[in-house]
What does this fold into?
Amino acid sequence: MKIERYERWFLIAVAVALLLAVAALLATIAGEHAAFPESSERIDPALISSTAPFDQPGVYPRDDGGYDVIMIARTWAFEPAEMELPVGATAHFRIASVDVVHGFKIPDTNANAMIIPGQVTELEVTFDEVGPHSVICHEYCGIQHHIMGGVINVVGGEG
Amino acid sequence: MTLLDEPAPIAPEPVPTPTVQRVRSWKIDMPYLTHADLRPVKWHLYLAFIGLLLGVLMGFLQAMERGGANLYDDVPVIETYYQGLTLHGVALALVFTFSFANSFMTLLTMRGFGRPMASRGLLEASLWCGWAGTALAAWAILANKATVMFTFYAPLGATPAFYIGAVLLVVSTWLTLANQLLTLRAWRRDNVGARIPLMSYTSIVTMLMWFLASTGIAVEVLVFLLPWSLGLRDAVDPQFTRILFWFSGHPIVYFWLLPIYVSWYTLLPRQVGGKIYSDGLTRIVFLTFLLLLPVGVHHQFTDPGIPFSSKTIQWLLTFGIFFPSMVTAFSVVAALEQGGRKRGGRGWFGWITKLPWNDPSVAGQLLAGLAFALGGASGLINASYTVNLVVHNTSFIVGHFHLTVGTAVGLSIMAISYWMVPYLTGKQLFAPGLAVAQVWAWFIGVLIFARGQMWGGIDGVPRRTQLRDAVYYGDNDWGTATLFTAVGGLIMFVGGVLFFVVIVGTIFNKRVVSETQVIPVAEIEHGSRSTWRVLDSLGTWTIIAVVLSVVVYGEVLAHYLPLTEVSPPIRPW
Ligand code: HEM
Ligand SMILES: [Cu+2]
Ligand SMILES: [Cu+2]
It folds into this structure.
């Protein structure tokens, strides 16, 4: 079967470009610690508000200088919806939904996750920029989906 | 030449037809077809138009919302942004695309094999499933009982009619495949040892690919969601139903695209005076899509319940899609260039201007191809693993798929309709000049629209959101991007309205066609003689595709199971 000479070179060039892209993307994981959200455990949405740690959502300092953020997503709010973190801090989020699927997105950071009933979404976010950051539910979750948001205030100096 | 209204028997009939032969007043290049063979093709196409019309009307409301005018309290029936958006998604992503595929793939199968479809019963059944499924789903959405988006993620619980409607729409495509396979069998009996004609081959592989792909949604709906919405099942596992959904939800984009590939590969070259580049490469491209089914997890990079290993494996497989896309870019452009040069084009780019841009069917498909180049590039960004963390579920994705399904596919369907409606109705195309303006309006509109959506998405604009009322809208600098979206969307809407002016004008045109209507079938430069025979062994390829899917998704399931069935249906709308 005939494959044009130009077409063969074209495909080889495509293959090389793709291999370079794969290498670059793997480097973002190894070098920049860009990581996907994972599920730390499974949980029954009906029992969330009575199960530790979700019975007490909030921000808790960790021994390593970071913070644990325990968060509940429900139609149509995050809990806690507002919090303050020092610049440069790494927050370890654990988020669970009590009802439908929600989203979790903080613009200008790597924070982007789905919150799915039955799973606990776990992700790490480092905040390098001072100022307020929107926390956005970016999955349709019902008629008031657009009011589901929060704010993380990143403050300067040592917090 | 046959005159209008004069009873004209349809010339040589290779198969005996039980029904009374109906009169047709214009001639087509398939004299072996009767009215009964073509009627379902036409009514599938009209159903596609209804999907497009509903979708474009909702698109107008969405664009206005972005512009700051929330019209949902003023229009009848559609009460909320999200109800309208569900209709937009279902009407366009399911009804419009599926019905066009049923129509177009049936027509080209008959043209390729040179015979009618094997079963009239299946033709009719497919048509009825399409219309009934659409009616059920539309009723559920319009009655505000299914504001769940076209992805219907559990635990959002729609009324059972919605799921039944979705199933019927999928079944209509299965029936088309069944009919194609029966026709293939009959054709093989009469043509022992012959190669499957390229046009029939590509049409069958398209439907076969989707049949295998759709098993995910079929299980999701029939085993889980439908019984659950009927109260026969208490709870489902939302992470698991998402896995099933995306098993089908990725290859559904192949299903949107491949009928257009059939046109770009086997018809468009003829429309511009070129030839199909290579029979073998075309077959390989279609088979690649059949093999690359199991990559749906790339839509779930940010899902918590899916392990890193599955995400990595399916990410790497996803990059494989780049190859058939690049072969297509090469082959289709080569065919176009050949046509342009035959028409007197010189130099590197001179052939482009010589293409028949005044033919709306050509102009529309050329612009659609251009949009696809941009859409493909943005698709590579979405698929780029960690980069997905920037764009996932933002309006960047919306920008991407209005270039791809909205324009590469949508505008091509409109462009193909410009020869197909005259072919099926015997009416002259109404206002061809307006049709050329139509395709340009859509194209310019979508460029502005997608620019706005992508720009906004990179800055964090979420998708599926009544944006101007969002609590965080004022805290972010999204104004200009949103304005682009609104303006581009309104220009697209104008393009959509013009399409309906041309099409309705054609259907009711008093002027009938005088020449024989032909499907523009292109000749092949490197024909099937040098093509590997094994490419025609569809059974073997099906088995390989199934094994690949089972292995790749087996890995996902091995990590995922057992299920966590914790969610009852919820209706937060
Ligand atoms: C007049 C033309 C159109 C306009 C103005 C338009 C506008 C929009 C907008 C603004 C959204 C995003 C809504 C949101 O995320 O909140 C959207 C979503 C969408 N559009 Fe379009 N669109 C048009 C035509 C099309 C066409 C032709 C197709 C496909 C063939 C299409 C397929 C979709 C799909 C699948 C969605 C996603 C729905 C969802 O998120 O569930 N659109 N459209
Ligand atoms: Cu939401
Ligand atoms: Cu995909």
